[in-house]
């Protein structure tokens, strides 16, 4: 989050001045250094972002993204800083055209409020039955062409284009058995053989 932009939005939302002053003191004059082996960098000033782990950071992020572009044909999905947009329609052309318009608006918003987008982590997938007759037209975002993937990982859930969840089930099954193969030798090592136990005899 760009600090000056956040402060502007706090003022625009007519928060009490004393709260804005507290938040400004909370954000400004923060510094950082980077240490690599025994080398320490010079002091840098943090002009964006909020302290990780602070209970105030999610609330400020919500305020900052409250004016995120809204479209009647697009559903916005937010979870922390992970964002997905969804569009549906009777034809792929309509869906692609709707998504492209939404991406253009999002790009304008990100440019205005200095939000950096990692296009390497930006993916597109078309959920539908059957097989496409023609190649789907690529989407463009931040001067990058987004290819259509067969599946995408969102919030730990692997979504394939058919929504069969086969890949997600296989991934978790393989992960489960990998854990089991690690645990079994530990269980065997912890088991000790027990010798025969002599029966108790009553005293004569």
Automatic annotation (TrEMBL):
Read off the InterPro entries from this record: DNA/RNA_pol_sf, RdDP_mobile_element, RT_dom
Gene field: jockeypol_143
Q: Which UniProt keywords apply?
A: Nucleotidyltransferase, RNA-directed DNA polymerase, Transferase
Q: Which GO terms describe its molecular function?
A: RNA-directed DNA polymerase activity
Residue ranges of every copy of the Reverse transcriptase domain listed in the record:
1-159
Q: Which organism is it from?
A: Araneus ventricosus
Protein name in UniProt: RNA-directed DNA polymerase from mobile element jockey
């Amino acid at each position: 989050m760009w600090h000056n932009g956040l402060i502007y939005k706090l003022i625009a939302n007519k928060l009490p001045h004393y709260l804005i002053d507290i938040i400004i003191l909370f954000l400004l004059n923060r510094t950082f250094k980077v240490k690599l082996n025994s080398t320490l960098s010079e002091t840098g000033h943090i002009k964006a972002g909020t302290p990780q782990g602070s209970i105030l950071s999610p609330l400020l992020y919500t305020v900052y993204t409250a004016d995120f572009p809204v479209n009647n044909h697009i559903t916005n999905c937010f979870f922390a800083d992970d964002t997905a947009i969804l569009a549906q329609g009777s034809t792929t052309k309509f869906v692609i055209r709707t998504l492209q318009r939404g991406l253009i608006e999002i790009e304008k918003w990100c440019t205005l409020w200095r939000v950096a987008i990692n296009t390497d982590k930006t993916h597109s997938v078309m959920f539908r039955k059957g097989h496409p007759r023609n190649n789907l037209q690529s989407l463009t975002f931040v001067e990058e062409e987004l290819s259509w993937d067969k599946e995408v990982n969102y919030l730990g859930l692997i979504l394939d284009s058919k929504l069969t969840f086969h890949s997600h089930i296989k991934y978790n099954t393989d992960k489960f058995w990998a854990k089991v193969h690690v645990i079994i030798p530990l269980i065997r090592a912890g088991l000790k053989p027990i010798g025969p136990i002599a029966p108790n005899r009553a005293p004569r």
